[in-house]
Specification:
Blueprint: E1 4-7, E2 10-18, E3 20-21, E4 28-29, H1 32-49, E5 52-61, H2 68-81, E6 87-92, E7 102-111, E8 123-129, H3 136-139, H4 147-154, E9 159-164, H5 169-178, E10 182-183, E11 197-203, H6 207-214, E12 218-223
Parallel strand pairs: 3-4, 5-6
Antiparallel strand pairs: 1-2, 2-7, 5-7, 8-11, 8-12, 9-11, 10-12
Helix pairs in contact: 1-2
Length: about 220
């Protein structure tokens, strides 16, 4: 089940993070601007993959008043990379202090098209980026699918669907998208953390344009 709902002409996507931030007891130490960026990244990608045009963000901050500005800046940076004009609102838990950082993100978009399972022999599948999780996200930035590439491919003619990969891995998402299993040189079951890679389903003849956009981050899936 994806963290997206479609209702009343809107597509609403959500993501959260815990124990990632600048507090002493965080499992992954990262600036709050980076935390906000990756939280927004996941929800924005989910919203757009479902056919939404994002216009608003709700930020839930449990990391203290001092974290709000940086978290919001991270959200706005992710939106800018995707060409979205987001209104940002939210709330901070300031009555009680937590030992670890936590944040939640909700993205609201207008429903622009219908998205669902993609089928047909003429459809091919690829993955952009590499599944990364935890400190790998910060250490292997060259393997993270850029939002600018995601945005370009989402709008590309011949694209049937895009699908961000989450914690359940490429194999799970590919089966959700196509109803089939697949294989490639990447670890198909590894978590992709904050959607460091995404799947793309495309019509025959589109592969070259995808490869030109994504470069070495593009890999073709063999679907069984």
């Amino acid at each position: 089940m994806r963290d997206v709902i479609r209702t009343n002409g809107l597509i609403i996507a959500a993501d959260n993070s815990g124990a990632i931030g600048e507090k002493e007891h965080d499992a992954v130490r990262a600036p709050y601007e980076v935390v906000g960026y990756f939280s927004a990244r996941v929800a924005l990608m989910e919203c757009m993959a479902a056919g939404g045009e994002p216009f608003a963000a709700v930020l839930h901050n449990f990391s203290g008043d001092e974290a709000w500005k940086a978290l919001k800046e991270g959200v706005q940076r992710a939106a800018a990379e995707l060409g979205c004009a987001l209104e940002v609102t939210g709330s901070t838990e300031s009555n009680f202090s937590m030992l670890q950082s936590a944040a939640g993100m909700v993205i609201i978009g207008r429903d622009a098209r219908e998205a669902g399972r993609v089928e047909g022999r003429e459809v091919q599948y690829g993955v952009i980026g590499k599944p990364l999780v935890g400190n790998e996200v910060l250490e292997c930035t060259e393997d993270v699918a850029p939002l600018a590439v995601f945005h370009e491919i989402v709008k590309m003619e011949g694209i049937r669907a895009v699908l961000p990969v989450g914690s359940k891995g490429i194999a799970y998402e590919l089966e959700q998208l196509s109803g089939k299993k697949g294989r490639c040189e990447l670890d198909m079951k590894k978590s992709a953390g904050p959607s460091t890679c995404f799947l793309v389903a495309f019509e025959e003849g589109t592969a070259q344009r995808i490869e030109e956009a994504a470069g070495r981050l593009y890999r073709l899936h063999l679907v069984e």
